[in-house]
Amino acid sequence: MVNRRQFISSSLGGFAAYAAGTFVPAWAQNAPNLGTPVLPNPGFRRVKVGQVEVVSLLDGVSRRPLGEEFVANAPLAEVKALLASQGLSTDYVDVPYTPFLVVAGQRRILMDTGLGDWGGPTTGKLLENLRAAGFGAEDIDTVLISHYHGDHINGLRNRAGEYVFRNATVMVPAGEHAYWMDETRAAQATAGRMKGLFDNARRTFGSMPAGMLQIFEPGSEVLPGITSVNAYGHTPGMTMFDVRSDGESFIFLADLTNIPALFARNPDLAVAFDMDAEAARQTRRMAFERIVANNAMVGGFHFPFPAVGHMVAVGAGYDFKPVAPA
């Protein structure tokens, strides 16, 4: 039987194209004329959810120009007015990337993996912040993946092709995996962003050992105390995770909304990356309504650090209230 370490060594040659490639997503780069976002230090934050500890782990922040394309269904003037009303820049948006670690007894469960080696200079900080929080990549026993966009999966493998969390089982949503690994769809994506997404997903998961990859059906309990919640729309199989302990709840929102100053304050707005904007809008509305009604703690992958807190109703939308400073 070939173990994981042997598999990694034998597969490096075939992974050379990945390492030599230029898959550095445009949305992970800083616009040089807009300055550089300042990363918080420390880049981790602990909160308790019952008997469970949840740790937000900043992977980084990208600063991108605010153009017509970012919000797909509203004029730029309206988008700028919404940002200005909250005292935010109307020239650019800062997009954070924040995976979460769940520490439950002896379990170390990572939710999404950030950009890894594949982003700009102000990203790829997950492992550094994981170490600062007192853990190493080798401590992770499970990685839960919400969906297959690069900023959520690229941290699984480094540029040498090695599995970063070599002791972990990687759990993925069934519908998401089926969509991105479908041969016909991949063949039809011949150019542009969609081709890059298909290629990247297949590079990441296509040669993953069967013993490492585990596929689950959203709606199921994936681990004791952690239930998967379907959140389709942003991608065909995007999934959130609900962590419960002693009657308390933490919900990892993944990309239910991009930056909350826009897409939570007005949940009907569609970020350019939503693959089915109407389904994503409906999912966002229903999820936020339930979250506020239940006063659940949330963690948002693209929320401003510490990226963990509560949602409150404001007008026809919602506002993110981060936990108080430690």
Name some characteristics of this structure.
seven-stranded mixed sheet; 16 strands; Metallo-beta-lactamase, Chain A; 326 residues; alpha+beta
Description:
This protein has 10 helices and 16 strands. It is an alpha+beta fold and 326 residues long. The chain has a single domain (4-322), classed as Metallo-beta-lactamase, Chain A. A hairpin with a 7-residue loop joins strand 14 (297-300) and strand 15.
Poorly predicted runs are: 1-23
**What's the CATH class, please?**
Alpha Beta
Q: What's the mean pLDDT score?
A: 91
| CATH-defined superfamily | Ribonuclease Z/Hydroxyacylglutathione hydrolase-like
Helix and strand content put the structural class at alpha+beta
Concise synopsis of the structure shown:
With 326 residues, the chain is of the alpha+beta class.
